[in-house]
Write a structure and sequence with these properties.
The structure is a homodimer. By secondary structure, chain A is of the alpha/beta class. The first copy, chain A, has two domains: 160 residues, NAD(P)-binding Rossmann-like Domain (Rossmann fold, 3-Layer(aba) Sandwich); 120 residues, N-(1-d-carboxylethyl)-l-norvaline Dehydrogenase, domain 2. Chain A has 13 helices and nine strands. In chain A, the strands form two sheets. Chain A has a six-stranded parallel β-sheet with strand order 3-2-1-4-5-6, with helices on both faces. Chain A has a three-stranded mixed β-sheet with strand order 7-8-9. In chain A, helix 2 links the parallel strand 2 and strand 3. Chain A starts with a strand and ends with a helix.
């Protein structure tokens, strides 16, 4: 049986992911808030729907890839939302990066209507979405995960079920907790080196040979050395993800002091008007604060 | 010409490094504050000296591997210090982890007596010292570095000249800036996961596949999952290294907020009586603070 696939949210990440599903031969129904976002998909053979409920009525497995927690909530439960078209046996897969707490609440509401849900945030950026090499961090029931897995495999490569519903969002939050601090730490080290008259390129080389080695030191460290901050992962999106981390931590009463500190750099970068740069551009602020440029 | 080698400081790191020099066929003169520390070297064929000046008189290249900045200062310039036995053409190589600022001052004083100096702090721990696989971060003149390099190659594997005198200590400080924050960040992520009911082992697995991947996530993350905090790198030494980082930053007027924050965990761990554990044991404190155990 070929599953009938829906895709809601056709932005930078959603559009190329949906194209990959279509190319793999899956019949596809789509909806996006801005009609022009649907155009490339329709040209490629997808069917446009009038609203999320219509997508839900047409399809068995429905992907959502929008910006933030309230956007997903609106798509699911707003006027003409998914809930008004979905029914028993259907699956909602949320690829957005949003609150794990809200995710668990949505899943419970959907379950009341017989609808299954997976949370499946990704990393890998636009490049990964185009290449079909996204990393998926998935939460939800094993049987539902196995049902959707062939579709994940069309869009991505490193697909890990992290636990029950919400576990994908929790893992994505952990990812951002680690990466934000890794970027800030590499920037601090490079500033420390420069103010001591040492070439940060030598520092990076030496550190890559030991326990300080990381993909951030390698990739983001290189951007910092070259002052090349073309994204990559945009600061304004990193900022949004860190807000989710800190809000979730506050709601649950968890202290994440390092992540909170690193978030300040990302916030300041966006506030300085550089939200479209890669988030490793916080190094610029660190240099400025150290009277370097 | 076989260089005559001196080795001062025969502790956990110095002793196995000196043994490797001796085994490689280099005549070796040694001194240590505690006479019994010299015994294994003398049994293996090294010559004991009465004080650092005596070692300096006997040898061409003199390694120092002691605990902290004042210890190196005492060995170099105290009563019967190296300066009283050293002369033109000799080389002092400091393998201790100490202040880069003090290092530059010492090198200038030694140069006044015709003595060359390299700073060459290491990473790799006791295991690396025994196996001859230490990483060397070296500062000093290229010609002096090349003269000593064959001896570094007896003791280590990843040998990088990072710049002029002091650059080795600066690079080691950068190493600790990055590692301290990486450990704290992984601990934060694991606590965040656990409080969200997600297995941190799954988080580690998922994150190792993406940009959050690091040797710390791999090695220290594994220790955290298993609550196995046998060192490794002892917290009390990490604590000492972070004091050097923060003192140097303060002296030069550099802000390293992330490193300062991570240092608080290491300080607290030592204060809790766990200075002999691996510094990844800060995870215990993070768990306690999150009402986990």
């Amino acid at each position: 049986m070929t599953e009938r696939i829906g895709y809601i949210g056709l932005g930078i990440m959603g559009r190329p992911a949906a194209v990959n599903l279509l190319r793999a031969g899956h019949p596809l129904w789509v909806w996006a808030r801005r009609a022009e976002s649907m155009r490339p998909l329709i040209d490629a053979g997808a069917s446009a729907c009038s609203d999320p409920a219509a997508v839900a009525r047409q399809t068995d497995i429905l992907f959502i890839n929008v910006s933030d927690t309230p956007d997903v909530e609106q798509v699911l439960f707003g006027d003409n939302g998914v809930i008004h078209g979905a029914g028993a046996g259907k699956v909602v897969v949320d690829m957005s990066t949003v609150s794990p707490i809200a995710t668990r609440e949505w899943a419970a509401r959907l379950e009341g209507a017989g609808v299954e849900m997976l949370d499946a945030p990704v990393s890998g950026g636009e490049q990964g979405a185009v290449a079909g090499s996204l990393s998926f961090m998935v939460g939800g029931k094993t049987a539902v995960f196995e049902r959707v897995r062939p579709l994940f495999e069309v869009m991505g490569k490193n697909i890990v079920r992290c636990g029950e519903i919400g576990a994908g969002q929790v893992t994505k939050a952990c990812n951002q907790i680690v990466i934000s601090q890794a970027i800030a730490a590499v920037g601090e080290a490079f500033v420390f080196a420069r103010r001591n008259g040492v070439d940060p390129a030598r520092v990076r080389e030496a550190l890559l040979g030991g326990f300080a080695a990381s993909r951030v030191l390698e990739a983001h460290g290189k951007r910092m050395l070259e002052h090349d901050f073309a994204p990559g992962f945009k600061a304004r999106l990193h900022c949004k993800d860190m807000r989710i981390v800190l809000e979730t931590a506050a709601q649950l009463g968890i202290g994440v002091p390092g992540a909170a500190l690193a978030t300040q750099y990302v916030n300041a970068l966006v506030g300085a008007g550089d939200g479209e740069l890669d988030s490793s551009a916080i190094y610029r602020l660190q240099e400025l604060a150290a009277a370097l440029s």
